[in-house]
Amino acid sequence: MPNLHDLFEPRSIAVIGASADRGKIGYRLVENILASGYRGEVYPINPRGGEVLGRRVYPTILDVEDEIDVACIAIPAASVFHAVTQCAQKGVKFVPIITSGFSEVGNLEEEKRIVAYARAHGMRVLGPNIFGVYSAKASLNTTFGPRDIQPGHVAIITQSGALGIAMIGKTAVEEIGLSAIVSVGNKADIDEADLLDYLIADDDTHVILMYIEGIKTGDRLLEVLSGGTQHKPIVLIKAGRSERGAVAAASHTGALAGSDVIFEAVTRQCGVLRAESLRDAFAWCKFLVETPLPSGENTVIITNGGGVGVMATDACEKYGVNLYGDRPTLKDIFSDVTPAFGSTQNPIDLTGQATDAGYHAALTAGLAHPAIHAVIALYCETMLFDIDQLATMMTTFSARYRSAHKPIIFSIFGGDRIETLIPTLRKRHVPFFTDVYEAVSCVGAMYAYFHHRTAPADAPEGVDINSRRIDQVVDNARRDGRGFLLAYEGQQVMAAADIATPQSHLAHNLDEAVAAAAATGYPVVMKIVSKDILHKSDVGGVALDLDNRDEVMDAYQAIIRSCRAQQPHAMIEGVEVSNMVPRGVEIIIGARRDATFGPIVMFGLGGVYVEVMKDMAFRLFPLSRREIMAMLKETRAYPLLLGVRGEAQKNIDGVIEAIMKLGTVIQQCRQISDIEINPLMVYEQGIDVTAVDVRILIGN
Amino acid sequence: MPNLHDLFEPRSIAVIGASADRGKIGYRLVENILASGYRGEVYPINPRGGEVLGRRVYPTILDVEDEIDVACIAIPAASVFHAVTQCAQKGVKFVPIITSGFSEVGNLEEEKRIVAYARAHGMRVLGPNIFGVYSAKASLNTTFGPRDIQPGHVAIITQSGALGIAMIGKTAVEEIGLSAIVSVGNKADIDEADLLDYLIADDDTHVILMYIEGIKTGDRLLEVLSGGTQHKPIVLIKAGRSERGAVAAASHTGALAGSDVIFEAVTRQCGVLRAESLRDAFAWCKFLVETPLPSGENTVIITNGGGVGVMATDACEKYGVNLYGDRPTLKDIFSDVTPAFGSTQNPIDLTGQATDAGYHAALTAGLAHPAIHAVIALYCETMLFDIDQLATMMTTFSARYRSAHKPIIFSIFGGDRIETLIPTLRKRHVPFFTDVYEAVSCVGAMYAYFHHRTAPADAPEGVDINSRRIDQVVDNARRDGRGFLLAYEGQQVMAAADIATPQSHLAHNLDEAVAAAAATGYPVVMKIVSKDILHKSDVGGVALDLDNRDEVMDAYQAIIRSCRAQQPHAMIEGVEVSNMVPRGVEIIIGARRDATFGPIVMFGLGGVYVEVMKDMAFRLFPLSRREIMAMLKETRAYPLLLGVRGEAQKNIDGVIEAIMKLGTVIQQCRQISDIEINPLMVYEQGIDVTAVDVRILIGN
């Protein structure tokens, strides 16, 4: 298959469906290509022949003598297949199909036929249903969007065409230069992962922005994202965060939106910066493309307005920005440049009395000091400040400290005089915003990326489990026609994975029950065992806290009597007698094979609280133990494991090992799709964690 | 005391510290007053005499013959008191003190002296440390900020001066007209509540925006806010949300920032719209001042971009906007105006193929239909759409439906052509934004206000408690020199408030313990009782789940032995024998007298989860039972009371009554500052809730 290099830097390009009619996309494509300064050959194709914009039109692509790297197709859907066959004959490498009317309106068969033919003939398809491709490297604008695209260092991949075209306009207004923008449309062949491969390697691309609605092959995407974020920041917007939004996204693109919670967790794990709104995404890209990575986390806020300083402090907490708090050092640095009624503590409050000279002095002092790694500079328009000086100051400082790896971001707030500065500051690529929260959110994104880049690169770890034994258990259940394991089978799986469970015995009669209880040790719990009884408690099939032989005998009889009476046709296998597990911290752990992303592990607050508190964290598996620990710490429930109210610390290592084991089961025993322990009882250190209830599902 | 009417609409104004020096605040004040079109008399005051801007300068205020309503003071701090005495002599009503250098730099005494003198002489003080007052009604700009302030219908009260001045500029850029802007500074006399009183009654003010850093008299403020939101929306920014931000706010203004969780809860209860960022606050004001309240909650999104439609759907969920979902009706309304490959389901997706005529038709259809109460119209710049038509359409529709009480908001996204529209649209007061989330957040704010205005106005309710008995218990504890109640005293308070507790008896010896257990009924719990032993479990002072006489005897001896051994000097009063409370849903309820806001009640997930999950809701007390129910529903834990996993519903009424009782205790027994029950065990309906652990603090 051809290398994507030739899609972004083709030596020649054909436009199938080129038109002299200004209202047609086929006209606009040729017009944009010619206007963009592309240095390769351009061949308009249309059976009617003639000329488009002074260029000769070839009746078919076969009539062109030159070799053609890219053939952009903009003709009615019914004619596309035929055009693709001609492209194949011609030896074209890439066919971006602008045309819509395929899978997005239910016409999946034709789309599949085209892609299959193309791939069988060594071609790759972009789209269909796209607005095209812009590549700064080739000075090539093969889109029907705006003509003028400013070259630069942000690459955009978008699943939405209308939004993509509007984004081109927006980047121009914001003076965000593009290295590339690509519309992926229906992703029938080339998908985000393919495009990322090229853009990650492309030196002109410094930041990548992706707009996604749904994902087809998640595991490959994550692999590419994971590798890519080691080289450059990747900002992602995935619409369909909410339940109703996911439905809207699905109906819009036909793509599976999937669970957003999982998506959020796994993309973060890959170091991707996920933005909620377009505005945040653009702000982050604008900042990240202009800004060096810092050398540390000590951030100071310098402000001429106390109020915005306080708001920025709030925003720093919200976005995880670490405010430098060494009071003596801060005093040393700033006392000479701060008035007595201001504050040298972070935020550095120069007060509304600050002149431009005073502000300049404070920025100089802060930026020059090695203990400070990043500066958030806030400005409220006052009467005492020469605003032209402000613009100069912003330009100078941001240029000077870019090469010194010390990020500086400005937030400026005021009236007309501020408004007039904006176009100039944009043109000079000064990182500035007009809202404190927006500015700080950019710094937060930068530090999220900084943490990812500076985190130790752990090798994934694993544990030994008896996967052959587990497969046997699953095989048995399958032979039985079941898609799930029964309780005792779950216990067998736990044993094979070396996770402790309550001792338990199946008793077929009263004598066996009494013997089982004696063997287990009092107190015991008894539960009916029957494939036909799903909700055991509802039919009197459970007895708890049985302290002696008499209570066991009474309970056995009561259980059998009650179940017989309430479900006369149920096949009763017997009664399970288990020792009663002492209370500990109840957590939930799980692992599953996600249809989109592959093996995933989960940790959260267990018991009945799972459903209401939804306090859970997820990770792609495999993982290192350090990363599992980080997952635990993400939950609000984590302090329970550290011990609250003076309790001793719990067996956290036991929890980590248990999660490692569940992940390994899902990895190695491919028949199992879901495994969940709730609750897993966690005790003090040195005491085994115990899986009280295990639920295991078998996949298809 | 004079009515605030005369501060905003004075017949005459003096500027003490008027100056001919253009660099001085005293010059700027006179300049702004004269430029603003004020029709009253203006008297510059300065011992040097002469002229300022063609006006005669009087040496002292006493030299003016006319009566003076307002004397604005802008002279050094040390001279202010003397000037105030002269104002008093002259019979001035209001003295806005621009001068800084008072309590904000620790000079509290002088500030108090000035205010005390002023009030004793029938004057009221605004500030000190302010930038002044603007009042559209009087065409009066007594600030040293920008000269031109656009008159309109938003009133701003700000605690930060620098921010306030910048806000004036920002409102002008955004074409947000002001009815008033007032700086409150140190709030030594006039505070937000006083100003609100005037602005709420002022017909020219349609929306009020407040910027607050700290609050002095919270209960009065809440009362005024509560009344005010029945007349107009009040948008509030309180900086210092985060812990660090609160510290920064406190050091900035000397105002107590207080707990933000409580602040958030009580202001929401008053119907105040709290904005996080300045941008949100301005957006909401801009929208609310232009927009009628809707007649219902059915909102539709109409879009020409599928992607932004999905994002808007996500945003609607985030901001609590109800998307109309009646599919047949939506199809009826929109099928004629939506292409086949679009969607008539909400969001209505006209696709990127939509022309301006198509978009117009869809807006017309949606706005005309009675089932639809509000429209969110999204536009992505495309090549097919005549953008001049867009501006006309936006203007026409927003004007037409303003009088029809059907809000419409636009979010427009694109390049240069969009950018050029912005100033025009602002001038025409069309409610539009350039980000989907921002637009939807405005609709969310509108509906939050709508819900507040349409909620039934319940009268606060109460319950009977035996407050005399409670006072006796507290008096005893006070005589004992304690600031808290012991466990048995807590039980006495519970009994007086008619909240069930476990039965319990104090046993002084083995025989009494056995008798107590028999009287209580097995199983029982035993706990050491000693003022000297704080952590009972740590010294072996607790025994749980004792099933019979033998176990009670063993446990009694074990407890006494262990406590004697580990704390030989502890005064042991005996052992408490209580019946063991069956497990139920463990919640926490509480009530306290907040130093800023007065009586507050609390509900949340109880047990050890309180500290880690922080799942709690708060309300000002008194309340109606319906409002307590709403408080319960605010927590994530609420479904536990409804019964999860097929359990029966719990005794929710019992919880509501218990909260009502705690609130009433705090209201009536003014010696008690804090009362907390954790856990309160909640069982099925018909079974009393039980206070297992009660903690009561006595105030000063």
**Strands of chain A, count:** 29
Q: End-to-end distance of chain A, in Å? A: 33 Å
Largest sheet of chain A: 7 strands, mixed
Tell me, briefly, the overall form of chain A.
Answer: flat
Beta-strand content bin of chain A: 15-25%
Task: Name the pair of protein chains with the most residues at their interface, and give those residue counts.
Answer: A-B, 99 and 99 residues
Strand order of the largest sheet of chain A: 9-8-11-10-12-13-14
Average pLDDT confidence of chain A is: 92
Low-pLDDT regions of chain A: none
Helix tally of chain A?
Answer: 24
Query: What is the structural class of chain A?
Result: alpha/beta
- Counting copies of identical and different chains, the oligomeric state is homodimer
Task: Explain what this protein looks like in three dimensions.
The structure is a homodimer of 700-residue chains. In chain A, the strands form seven sheets. In chain A, strands 9-8-11-10-12-13-14 form a seven-stranded mixed β-sheet, sandwiched between helices. In chain A, strands 24, 25, 26, 27, 28 and 29 form a six-stranded antiparallel β-sheet that branches. The longest helix of chain A is centred in the middle third of the chain and has 19 residues, at 436-454. In chain A, β27 and β28 form a beta hairpin. The first copy, chain A, is flat and about 100 Å long. Chain A is an alpha/beta fold and 700 residues long. Chain A has 24 helices and 29 strands. In chain A, α3 (77-90) packs parallel to α4 (108-120), α10 crosses α16 and α14 runs parallel beside α15 (416-427). The two termini of chain A are 33 Å apart. The first copy, chain A, is 40% helix and 20% strand. The model of chain A has no long low-confidence stretch (mean pLDDT 92). The interface between A and B is large, with 99 and 99 residues.
